[in-house]
Amino acid sequence: MARATATRADEIHARLRADILGGVLAPGEKLAFGQLQARYDVSTGVLREVLPRLVEQGLAVSEAQLGFRVVPVSVPDLLELTDTRVFVETEALRRSIAHGDVEWESAVLAARHRLSRTASLDTDGRVSEAWLAAHSGFHGALLQACPNTRLVHIAESLRDVSEVYRCWSVRSPESAARDVEAEHDRIATAAVDRDADRAVDELRRHIELTTDLLIAGAGA
């Protein structure tokens, strides 16, 4: 029985996480138990287990007397998040390159190929769940060989929160002209070539450009 409950909690956690990252649940939106029970056909007990996990991952916030909400967004927070993410993720990438083997190189290239073959937008113009998963998989593969698992976990959590911002802004003209595939190619190539300085620089540019375009889109 306990295992079944845990499995159900994992399922609901995955669905809520996908809906937050995909913008179905908007930044700052209240996560009311009654509404969530109806939408996801889930018990209060499972929600009491799942929502704190989302808070721990930075995708939701808990407010005394007010309950849970999707993490709110703002330009100052995005800038702070970006600065922290660059600091953490580039260090994890540098360590991953230093420790990665041929299997790691293969995983990076496979993840890059999958991402390049995945449509980024759904028919309704939203960032697709499949692309979000492939994008996360690519960035995760880059860090896979980093021996410091705590560092990798922090990097993954920061990247998840940064994805919330994609649904906050509209696509700006600059964003439409961006060649994100080329950016991913440059990061992957530098990583498997073991050029840590170039890989770190490309990753930093990639993250910071995303932030610049999100801010431009938010003001559009």
Automatic annotation (TrEMBL):
The keyword Transcription regulation applies. Keywords: DNA-binding, Transcription, Transcription regulation. It comes from the Bacteria. Pfam families: FCD, GntR. Residues 6-73 form the HTH gntR-type domain. PROSITE patterns: HTH_GNTR. SMART domains: FCD, HTH_GNTR. GO terms for molecular function: DNA binding; DNA-binding transcription factor activity. PANTHER family: HTH-TYPE TRANSCRIPTIONAL REPRESSOR GLAR, TRANSCRIPTIONAL REGULATOR, GNTR FAMILY. This is Transcriptional regulator, GntR family. It comes from Prescottella equi ATCC 33707.
